[in-house]
Amino acid sequence: MTKQLKSEIVAVGTELLLGQIANTNAQWLSEKLALQGINIYHHTVVGDNLQRIKKVFEQAQNRSDIILVTGGLGPTEDDLTREAFQLMSNLEMTEHAPSMKKIKNYFSRHNQNMTPNNSRQARVFKGSKVLFNRVGMAPGMIVKHESNTWIFLPGVPGEMKDIVTHDVLPFLQEETGNKELIKSLVLKFIGIGESALEHELKSLIQSQQNPTIAPLAQNNGILLRLTAKGESEKYVDELLDKTKSQILAKVGDYFFGENDQTIEQEVVRLLQEQNKKIAAAESLTGGMFTNKLISVNGASSVCPGGIVSYDKKVKQNILGVAPETIKNKGTVSEECAIEMAQNVSQKLDSDIGISFTGVAGPDRVEGKPVGTVYIALISKDGYQLVQRFEFMGNRNIIRNRATLKGLEIIFNFLKS
């Protein structure tokens, strides 16, 4: 029988509160636990202060059945997770011999002197289930205290993920008795807003039960997360496939990939499939579009290069935009964008040329307001497109949105 248990995550570390690093551990843990049907009710971040950590632990003890703690297990004086829990629980600590041996061997192999504080990492609570750290030094622990289960994990993401995957998730599955399989599928869309997508799928979303459908907006497009439950992987996959088909029947024109797939990967795949090359002339975006493409493995076969023509002299002398165009129409214009796309395609012997010119801010340029962007697309078979956009946001947001819009334009062209 499945137990319905309340769970929470506590992250220890002042660096998290200062914003020096992001709390990606909690995000990853929440996702993995949700797939096992374990509900997370609270996320807490607390700095490296003994009394404050103790207070947070007391709150967690009173409201949750399972508490996962990341961080504060290292060798330095500000690693206080064990001390705070001991202060609250009065449990005795002891040295874990296998972990101590590993720490000593590490320093010996690297011909380094081991300072006494490194032995702190081998301390565990008596009676706890020790989770050996295969990646780093400090082991994790599972501690039963009163009616609660405490799971202590290193803060280093690679160490934490390894322990959770190999030890914690199997333990929690047995602890909760949850044998039901939960699986998610992320569908990715571009060229449609979150509200418009939700409107098109209103009937499906309102009638959702299993799988559930959750729209999510991100900087690189709109996502739909489908989550299905079932007794077997085959049954769950059938549910996901059926719902996916229903969704794509309504909004398939905007769909470009699943899960970790990116729009730039799909663009490169389509270019390779069609044996075409693309070159970009970038003013506003300063190479961001080309950088996106060449981040994809195998992009060299479809992207010979690009020209960053930020200054008008570079547009004229290197890219070959006509002086009359710059004088009469300006660098932020349809005419300039078209010549940029045509010329970069010719100069780099590409089937397709794309260009970006506009005003990222903070000031107006040639009388054009901040956010004005022109994107042109030219192909050797005679296709020509130029569009004007008005993007909102600061300088970097405008440049990122222009880059994404360029990827959307070439994606739509290639799949048409």
UniProtKB/TrEMBL annotation:
Segments forming domain MoaB/Mog? 8-175
SUPFAM superfamilies given in the database record:
CinA-like, Molybdenum cofactor biosynthesis proteins
Q: Which Pfam families match?
A: CinA, CinA_KH, MoCF_biosynth
Alphabetical list of InterPro entries matching this protein? CinA, CinA-like_C, CinA_C, CinA_KH, Competence-induced_CinA, MoaB/Mog-like_dom_sf, MoaB/Mog_dom
User: What family, per the record?
Assistant: Belongs to the CinA family.
Q: Which PANTHER family match?
A: NICOTINAMIDE-NUCLEOTIDE AMIDOHYDROLASE PNCC (PTHR13939), NMN AMIDOHYDROLASE-LIKE PROTEIN YFAY (PTHR13939:SF0)
Question: HAMAP family, alphabetically?
Answer: CinA_B
State the protein's name: Putative competence-damage inducible protein
Q: Which organism is it from?
A: Oceanobacillus halophilus
